[in-house]
Amino acid sequence: MIETPKNDARQLRKLNFDLANYFSNTLIPQLFVDADLILRIFTPPAMEQFSLSYDHVGRSINDIKDNLRYPYVVDDILEVIETNGSIEKEVQTTDGNWFQMNVIPYVEHEEDRINGVIITFIDITRRLHAIKELEKLNSRHQTLMFSLSHDLRQPIAAITLLADALDQAHKKNDVQQFNSWIKTLKQSSKALELLVDDFTHENEEIGKDELPEELVKIGDVCENVLTALKSEIRLHKIRVVKIIKVPEVNFPKNHLRSIIYNLIHNAIKYRDPSKQSIIEIGTEKVENFIVLFISDNGPGIAEEDQKKVFEKALRLRKDIKGTGMGLYIAKKMVETNGGRIELNSKKGKGAMFKVFFKT
């Protein structure tokens, strides 16, 4: 076929028709902006998502960039036209949706020149939400595993100590002491069984939208923890004082037990051996929070170390056995459920941890 101006015009009309037909039928938001930054055409989904109308066609993209709810679109268009490259970004619009934005050059191959850009917006809101949920799930599972590993150590160690005490009582033929240790051993074994049951139940809940909150009796959880630590409390003649003004809190039961256990066990481990140790456990209502406090009269924590104690696997004292995970786990559990944990301490004057539970 001989090329004539008439044939060229026909081909141009056909190309324009094909482009318009494509834009009118695609299911994703797309825009064609020419090299003069004039909006030439867009898809119906772009009209819906960015509140565009046919009155916007033929206008400068500078005049309607606010409709796109992304402030750097003009800069990106100019960069693509200048470099003949492409841009891919994740952008969020003011309605909270996320898009993968691709800006690619529109090339007129016959003249070998860039005559604008095609901008495509792919909705990735659900994908990002799914990724965030997966990250949250992984975080919960990791916290659960850390907590299980950490919290099981002490009951197992206590049972080992009780076994040694039973052996000594048997050798001395001390029936009264033997029976007393047997009772304590049964209590510790039961506490360990309940701990494993709680963790098993929580593991079954992972994958649901939220961990189940329940109205938990704080006093009962404290008694459960004190029973698990009974042998150490008796061995070191520690006095425990309970001031429970608010008896219940909405919180995952196993998380609450783990938090209380870690705080009380730390007060025991880091006691001042030169005097009788006193541990106070209490609750109170402060504004929109129920506050659990656990205080001791131990050696205290230096101000420069107080933020460090919540770091993962950090141990301030190497002379005392531990994993350095207890306070890290407690903080993570509290914050996951919308609360916070605070430390008030002075060197040589004990420490008080306050756990704020949202009401």
From the structure above, extract its key features.
single chain; 359 residues; alpha+beta; Beta-Lactamase; Heat Shock Protein 90; five-stranded mixed beta sheet; 10 helices; 12 strands; 47% helix
Helix and strand topology:
Blueprint lengths: L4 H21 L4 E5 L4 E4 L1 H6 L11 H8 L4 H11 L3 E6 L5 E11 L4 E11 L1 H47 L3 H31 L8 E4 H11 L1 H6 L3 E6 L3 E4 L1 H17 L8 E9 L2 E8 L29 H11 L3 E6 L5 E8 L1
Parallel strand pairs: 7-9
Antiparallel strand pairs: 1-2, 1-5, 3-4, 4-5, 6-8, 9-10, 10-12, 11-12
Helix pairs in contact: 5-6, 5-10, 6-7, 7-9, 9-10
Structural class: alpha+beta
Strand content is 15-25%
For the report, how would you describe the main beta sheet?
Answer: 5 strands, antiparallel
How many whole angstroms does the radius of gyration measure?
A: 33 Å
What is the CATH architecture assignment of the largest domain? 2-Layer Sandwich
Q: Classify the fold: give the CATH topology of the largest domain.
A: Heat Shock Protein 90
Number of strands: 12
What is the first-to-last residue Cα distance?
81 Å
* Count of the domains: 2
Classify the helix fraction into a percent range.
40-55%
Mean pLDDT: 79
Query: Could you name the CATH homologous superfamily of the largest domain?
Result: Histidine kinase-like ATPase, C-terminal domain
**CATH class identity of the largest domain:** Alpha Beta
Shape, per Cα inertia axes: elongated
Poorly predicted segments: 1-9
Main sheet: strand order: 2-1-5-4-3
| SSE string, helices as H and strands as E | HEEHHHEEEHHEHHEEHEEHEE
Task: Please count the helical segments.
Answer: 10
